């Protein structure tokens, strides 16, 4: 029986790996140990944790709980200094501190490697799974290095599904630094050899999008053979049903007047080429639209970053789960979030406000949403009835889209079987 160590660090990665944990423990043949760290933020994961404890008696262990006191003390000081040094991004006179912080990297990595080496020898495992991208983190980098020498398989699992079709998805991709600033950036962030997991188990078409873009930092094309495109179990209808009945027990969200159209706007982080002025004008226009009940949902990881709270209009649904909002909504407005898959599974028509960002997505590419090019076009849609808006969506296209991107052109059993077998034979 293989022993699989799975690291969870936040709501998004825990939410995405939970279907695999559940399926694997039901199927058997593996033992799963769940790990988190002291710096993990599992806020909002109470239902996930309760489900695993109640059904499988599985509780996450603090991976770094037995690290030496001297190391823990030094790291606390290191992170405090790092928080101070990061202020140099707004205050250039602090750049020397940021430079010093970056020069501490080799020392911190060496000390971390010693702790990880000792820890890994004690726990023993056949496979280690982490949210992809974590191989670049302090612990992740050390774990990958140890595992390669010890011949332990490492797997990066998906924490979501990138919906973008363009590769320059981030604002930093469009910034041209002058030579002096470029030199400073390179000096502060010297290039190091990028570590890789043995495998990356991800959604469909992610090789040519996410893994070929700057979102997956410095991922070399020669390493794309490590990426296995399977699907997105988190958004499969079969898992959603079990998730609602056994894990989160969603409540019925109510807001507004029955005769009006329920509209939810799911926001993404502004760094993804979002035109904030257009976004704010759109929120204001939607809040004033007399034919709709309007709510907005900030992104789970970024909240309302770079948004002027005083200028926001409408109902802030930050504390309402996305599942509850999807069940409540008659229409969903999405421009940069994979929650669109949930809306599609709930038969909620999607509106894509193309003018809010500079990116392009798989939704308009596959003709499964209503494209709008300005605020007037958006507001005009709500002059139609709910049924008329639903008829604007090509249902056949949506079904084909779901089958391809969520199920990998198979069914749920095959999807989960592929996920399981890609880990277990290693």
Q: How does this model look, in words?
A:
The chain is α/β, with parallel strands linked by helices. The two termini are 12 Å apart. The strands form two sheets. Strands 3-2-1-4-5-6-7 form a seven-stranded parallel beta sheet, sandwiched between helices. The protein has a six-stranded parallel beta sheet with strand order 10-9-8-11-12-13, sandwiched between helices. It has 16 helices and 13 strands. The model has no long low-confidence stretch (mean pLDDT 91). The chain has two domains: 249 residues, Rossmann fold; 154 residues, CDP-glycerol glycerophosphotransferase, C-terminal domain (Rossmann fold), CATH 3.40.50.
Sheet of most strands: 7 strands, parallel
- Let me know the average pLDDT: 91
> How many strands appear in the DSSP assignment?
13
Order of helices and strands: EHEHEHHHEHEHEEHEHEEHEHEHEHHHH
Helix fraction bin: 40-55%
Radius of gyration, Cα only, in angstroms? 23 Å
Task: Please indicate the count of domains.
Answer: 2
Instruction: List the strand order in the largest sheet.
Output: 3-2-1-4-5-6-7
Question: Ranges with pLDDT <50 over ≥5 residues?
Answer: none
């Amino acid at each position: 029986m293989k022993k699989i160590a799975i690291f969870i660090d936040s709501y998004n990665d825990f939410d995405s790996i939970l279907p695999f944990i559940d399926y694997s423990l039901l199927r058997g043949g593996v033992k799963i140990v769940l790990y988190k760290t002291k710096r993990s933020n599992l806020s909002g994961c109470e239902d996930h944790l309760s489900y695993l404890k109640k059904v499988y008696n599985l509780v996450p262990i603090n991976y770094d709980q037995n690290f030496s006191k001297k190391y823990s003390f030094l790291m606390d000081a290191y992170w405090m200094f790092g928080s101070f040094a990061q202020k140099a991004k707004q205050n250039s006179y602090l750049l020397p501190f940021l430079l010093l912080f970056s020069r501490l990297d080799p020392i911190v990595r060496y000390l971390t490697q010693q702790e990880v080496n000792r820890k890994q020898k004690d726990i023993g495992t056949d496979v280690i799974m982490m949210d992809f991208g974590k191989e670049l983190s302090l612990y992740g980098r050390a774990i990958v290095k140890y595992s390669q020498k010890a011949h332990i398989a490492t797997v990066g699992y998906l924490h979501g599904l990138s919906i973008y079709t363009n590769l320059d998805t981030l604002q930093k991709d469009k910034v041209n630094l002058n030579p002096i600033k470029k030199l400073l950036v390179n000096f502060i962030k010297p290039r190091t050899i990028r570590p890789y997991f043995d495998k990356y188990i991800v959604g469909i078409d992610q090789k040519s999008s996410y893994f070929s873009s700057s979102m997956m930092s410095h991922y070399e094309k020669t390493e794309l053979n490590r990426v296995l495109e399977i699907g997105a179990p988190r958004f499969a209808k079969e898992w959603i049903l079990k998730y609602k009945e056994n894990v989160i027990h969603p409540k019925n969200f109510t807001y507004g007047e029955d005769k009006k159209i329920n509209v939810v706007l799911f926001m993404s982080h502004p760094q993804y080429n979002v035109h904030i002025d257009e976004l704010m004008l759109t929120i204001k226009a939607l809040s004033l639209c007399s034919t709709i009940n309007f709510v907005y949902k900030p992104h789970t990881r970024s909240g309302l970053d770079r948004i002027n709270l005083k200028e926001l209009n409408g109902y802030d649904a930050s504390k309402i789960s996305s599942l509850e909002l999807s069940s409540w909504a008659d229409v969903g407005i999405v421009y940069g979030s994979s929650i669109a898959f949930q809306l599609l599974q709930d038969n909620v028509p999607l509106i894509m406000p193309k003018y809010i960002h500079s990116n392009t997505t798989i939704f308009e590419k596959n003709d499964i949403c209503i494209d709008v090019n300005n605020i007037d076009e958006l507001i005009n849609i709500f002059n139609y009835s709910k049924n008329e808006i639903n008829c604007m969506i090509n249902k056949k296209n949506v079904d084909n889209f779901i089958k391809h991107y969520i199920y990998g052109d198979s069914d749920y059993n095959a999807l989960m079987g592929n996920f399981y077998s890609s880990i277990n034979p290693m």
